Amino acid sequence: MTGRRGPHRGWGRLESTLLTFALRLWPRHAREEDEAAVRLAFEERRSRGGGTWDLMLEVWDVALAGLRARATTPTAGRGARSAMPGTTGSGRRRMGRARGGIGTAIDVSRHAVRSAGRSPGWAGLVAGVLGVGLGATVAVVAVVDTVALRPLPYPDSDELVRIGVEREGRPGFGTISHPNYLDLASATRTLASTSAFTAFTMGARTGDTSELVRGGWVTGGFFETLGVGAAEGRVLASADDDPGAPLAVVASAAFATRRFGEGSAIGRSIEIDGSIGTIVGVMPASFVPPEGARMADTELWAPLAHAPLPVLERDLAFLEMAGRRVPDASQAAVEREAASIGAALVETHSLDPRAFAGLTVGTLREATLGDVGRTLGILTVSVLLLLAIAVLNASNLVLLRAFDRVDALRIRVSLGATRVRVVAESVAESVFIAAAGGLLGLAAASVAVEWVAASRPVALPRLIEATVDLRVAAFGVGVSVLAGALAGLVPAMVAVRRSGRDGTALGGTARGLTSRGGRGARRLRDGVVVAQIALGLALAGTATLLGRSLLEMRRVPIGLDSEGLYVATLRIAGIGGDDFDPAVLRTLVNETRRQPGVVAAELGSGSPYTPGGRVGYIEPEGVEVSREDRIQARIEFHRVGGGTLEMLGIPVLSGRSLSATDRADSEPVVVVSRSVAEAWFGTASPLGRRLVVGGDGTFTPRTVVGVASNPRYRGPRGEVEQHVWIPYEQMYGQALDLRVRMSDAGSADRAIAAAAGAVPGVELRGVRSVSAQLEESYLESTFFALLFGFFAIGAVLFAVVGLYSTLAQNIRSRRRELGIRMALGAGTRRIVRDVLRHGAGITILGIVAGSGLALVASRLASTLLFGVAPGDGRAWAAAVATLLITGVAASGLPAWRAGRTDPTRSLRPD
């Protein structure tokens, strides 16, 4: 024992500490009487070489004895040390007499833990199988709970509404102008508070540190409408909406910590887009900006009155709007009032219906959720399939072990143990193992959900809020207990039933029992494996479909050259104003082109793979356009420099490209994509035709001078987009990006920074790679392919383990039969062939049985597919081939062992 305690002295201290804690559970009088004897017995077990696991089980026995003593009469607690091996005396007799319902439950629990401890490898395998299934289930449930079940993280969130503008020919929630918002806010009686806001990339400077921050220009009622307050300082108020008031800024907890560390941010000076302000409040770390109102990830909030935006223009709509209903006002009342106010605005200000046709109202929760139900349904069904496979696999492992213990069960039943007690002990053992697996699964799920919330690889709303909270953890514990009970109940009942046959004759062996009249048992074991394979086929086929879908997506030509292409976000002072000098833009472009490594440079808006591209509509002259066509159309228009199409690698198919001669004083022109030409002009050439491009508020007719190929600015997924390109000097706006093609990727940041720094009034806010953004467009499909791949691998591995275990147990139970066959002349090849045929038959039967479920699963996953049909033959053939190969491989080792059966040993009496 000295050798054991020398290198493991730390374990010895831990064992003694746990024993002390276990003794604390005893009644005081029992502890005073028997503690010395218990410690002596414990040390004797340790001195005899008891391992750490054995001693931990002894500690468990001591703890249960104390609990049992507390649950019975005070005198019954005396002698609780009888739970320790080697102890004797009246205490044991008293404990035997005092056992009641609680005592029996404790005995069952004690037996479960010790029984699992005798087979740690088997217990670890079952716990691992259930842990994988439970961990995946808890992770998906946490996401579904956050996205679809929890209320929005604001007080009385069901009272929050989102208000948008209806435009002729354009569905959805359109943005509103500030003057129209003010008229609505003053006229409403059903909304207790309202706010207008817009997300904006802000250049924030504190001290010598500056960075590009996603922020929001908001009206003073923004935080009041949401019903949230500041953790430090105050939130914005209506007094801050006065343009003459000092610039007040509210910061997120993350921004304040990043900039000021442990110090307070309140009262600190901050420069936002050239304006000096003061941080007046810091929001709680738990505050989540309203994602359904397009304010996700914002970190700074400042009054809209100080924004460098055209807030006074009634025709320029760029603001989102939200409100909070008066408590006694229904949603229908808000909708009726909004319709009335919208009609009055149209009449009073003679608003063009193409820009403002009325107001529409919806709940903020509906706007946040969007159309995510199908995606969540697919995730839920898939993870439940994996959980079902894990439970079946665990049941199979428990069943096989139960059959191996038939002799022991028969002896216990013959000696007086009730079948209910034996079944209860088996179920308790499975529940204990499942609980251990559940704890592992909860830990893995917490890590997985934390990673998903931080990286957000899939476009699900509120994903940043996802966490394994107490509700989800309680669900996981409940499922683990239920899974353990299901995994242990049926196998225990089957094994007890078999152990009761001929229960008076204690001779024979488990092999005799399972071979004699064991066809039903073998069918049960095989049926469990068939069910696993059937469920596994659905997951393996879906994963293969998603993998092929990702490959097909990557084969789609994007219609432009992203290699070496960079986009720089700029702040250009005064752009769009009446006094702005366009020469600043030409100087910036020329200065950029002079930088080392720059191949080409142009200005433009609506860059590839960047959210925020302008979306509008067109009205071709001489073409009849129905209202339905306008509603379905999605035209993306871009203000660009003369050589933009050539720099992006977008070929012009007919006519000409835009050029540097297309200035503000020249004829208004436009280049359209081939998709626009085909959708709006049919087979006729659009060259020379005129069209009105909506979105700039002027509805100026422009002449089509060229038709370009179809680029995919928003990634390969979805329908081909419709684009129009307009010279930016003919449509000035508030923001232009600098697009730069580099020969040396490493010098992009330096070159662009040098060019921007050389032009007064130009501030560089950030540089991004178009190639990297293109890769991000594949991220969601890659995530689902990997996720379902994980599900499929787990399902196949579970099926392999189940098939292997079933065949191995079958070989053990038929060892005498195999010995007789080989003694009578059956060759090794025939024995091996029979086992392989058995394994292949189970696999094929599972594939056939799972074909219907696989068809349903593929239909559910159809919304995640791209370029691949749900019934794609190659994908399903690959899934079937994978299951067949793994099934045969799982049968190989049992078949090899069966072929090596020694007749002389197998026929030897037990």
Give an overview in words.
The structure is a single chain. Helices cover 52% and strands 15% of the residues. It has 910 residues and is α+β, with helices and mostly antiparallel strands. Strands 14, 15, 16, 17, 18, 19, 20 and 21 form an eight-stranded mixed beta sheet that branches. β19 (690-693) and β20 (701-708) form a beta hairpin. α14 (406-414) packs across α16 and α15 runs antiparallel to α16 (470-499).
Task: Give a brief description.
This protein is of the alpha+beta class and 910 residues long.
What is the overall silhouette?
A: globular
Derived structural class: alpha+beta
Number of helical regions: 30
Radius of gyration: 36 Å
Largest sheet: 8 strands, mixed
What distance lies between the first and last C-alpha atoms, to the nearest angstrom?
Answer: 36 Å
Low-pLDDT residue intervals, each spanning 5 or more residues: 1-10, 73-101, 501-517
How confident is the prediction overall: mean pLDDT? 79
How many β strands by DSSP?
23
Q: Indicate the proportion of strand residues.
A: 15-25%
- The helical percent reads 40-55%
Topology:
Layout lengths: L1 H4 L3 H15 L4 H20 L4 H20 L18 H9 L2 H18 L1 H30 L10 E8 L2 E5 L3 H10 L3 E16 L2 E10 L3 H5 L5 E2 L14 E4 L1 H8 L8 E4 L2 E8 L17 E4 L16 E6 L5 H19 L8 E6 H6 L3 H32 L1 H9 L4 H37 L14 H30 L10 H6 L3 H37 L9 E8 L10 H11 L4 E7 L10 E2 L1 E3 L6 H6 L2 E6 L3 H5 L3 E4 L13 E5 H8 L8 E4 L7 E8 L13 E6 L9 E6 L5 H10 L4 E8 H8 L1 H35 L1 H9 L4 H22 L1 H10 L12 H27 L3 H4 L4
Parallel strand pairs: 4-9, 6-8, 16-21, 18-20
Antiparallel strand pairs: 1-2, 1-10, 1-11, 3-4, 3-7, 3-10, 5-8, 6-9, 7-8, 12-22, 12-23, 13-22, 14-16, 15-19, 17-20, 18-21, 19-20
Helix pairs in contact: 2-4, 4-6, 6-15, 7-13, 7-15, 7-16, 8-11, 13-16, 13-18, 13-25, 14-16, 15-16, 18-25, 18-27, 18-28, 18-29, 19-23, 25-29, 27-29
